[in-house]
Design goal:
The protein has about 120 residues and is α+β, with helices and mostly antiparallel strands. The chain has a single domain, classed as Ribosomal Protein S5, domain 2. About 40% of the residues lie in helices and about 20% in strands. It is built from 3 helices and 4 strands, in the order αβββαβα. It has a 4-stranded mixed sheet with strand order 1-2-4-3, with helices on one face. A hairpin with a 7-residue loop joins strand 1 and strand 2.
Length: about 120
């Protein structure tokens, strides 16, 4: 049993997800109705995730918007990042898509007009 536990720990360490680093400021989205503008900035070391949210419906949906942004950031393993979100009534799938594209752009070393 001890041997099995040791092997599982080695496997976990071997395949542990590497943390992504923000290499540049990036954004995705627009300020149009039913959209969201997501801006990603590199944060100071050991500050974790900071989400600055502006929305006309922040009282009703602010917690849900923050949760959706946080889930995407955690999926990418990004640390020490500042995300500014200006919401204009975007739905959940739009929030997630815009956040994902902004993070991909921010961690990418070369600029691409395709994303």
């Amino acid at each position: 049993m001890l041997y099995l536990i040791k092997n599982v720990k080695e496997i976990i360490e071997k395949f542990e997800v590497r943390k992504m680093k923000i290499v540049r400021t990036a954004q995705a989205g627009t300020l149009e109705s039913q959209d969201i503008l997501i801006m990603v900035h590199k944060g100071k070391p050991n500050t974790g995730l900071v989400i600055e949210l502006e929305s006309p419906s922040v009282v009703q949906y602010g917690r849900k918007i923050r949760e959706e942004i946080q889930s995407i950031v955690e999926n990418y393993g990004v640390e020490d990042v500042i995300i500014k979100a200006i919401d204009k009534g975007a739905l959940g799938f739009t929030i997630k898509a815009r956040t994902e594209v902004a993070i991909i752009r921010a961690i990418s070393k070369k600029e691409s007009s395709r994303l």
